[in-house]
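Worked problem 6 (solution included).
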Amino acid sequence: MLSIALPVAFAIFIWWFATGIVLLLDGLPRHTFRWSHLVSTLLALASLAGLYSSADMNSTAGAFCGFTCALLVWGWHELSFLTGWVTGPRKAPATAGARGWLRFTQAVQAILWHELGILASGLIIAALTWGAPNSTGMATFVVLWVMRISAKLNVFLGVRNLSVELLPPHLSYLGSYFRQRPMNLLFPLAVTTATVAAAWLVGNTLTAPAGSAAATGGLLVATLLVLAIVEHWLLVLPVQSTALWRWAMRNHPSAAQAQAQDVADGTHAELLHAR
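Solution. The predicted structure is:
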């Protein structure tokens, strides 16, 4: 049982803790961002080296190392995006009344450099681990990438919970590309496909020898995929999706708060003008 419980618990903890750390750092004063970027960049570079070194480690230690290193590389992209360092060429809200292809292209322009950076990292990780026995790191990065693209598309097409409170004020314009509705047609397809993939992963893992590198790596990746599926459900269920990271967001100046303050300031200005 320990050979199953340990990878599952580790994947859940590092997913929860790493997400919280990124939100915590993003909520600090902007003058701290340079140091956050420096440390995060050094960790990402060390993680790429770790992915290369662990690629030939056909062991449980190699699986844990590959999984952790892939998450640290991913964390660099998340932090660089939320702090506004690597976003896209468009840094403005969607054009009023924009629909269809125009709205989609503007949304892509708003996050283009971020997405290209993730693509570049994926290609680097593939090159570092190609043909090696330990593919846990590559599988981890692919799951994060595919499920994050799915989440972004669902938020773009429309879901119940937009989680705009996760957006810092300097990214408040991204909220104009979100759409609030109970659900969209992509959601059931995305969740069903991911659930089938997760079931296949778990099935393959259970057939591997208990405690082996294949079993450990499979459990780590499968748990991460299940967590991503849960995150998808939190987009449409009537629950507060950010409650798990309240500890990291106590001083987080969200976009929603900034927008509310803008409305309040505008109302105050109108009252003064009326006087």
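Discussion: The mean pLDDT is 89.
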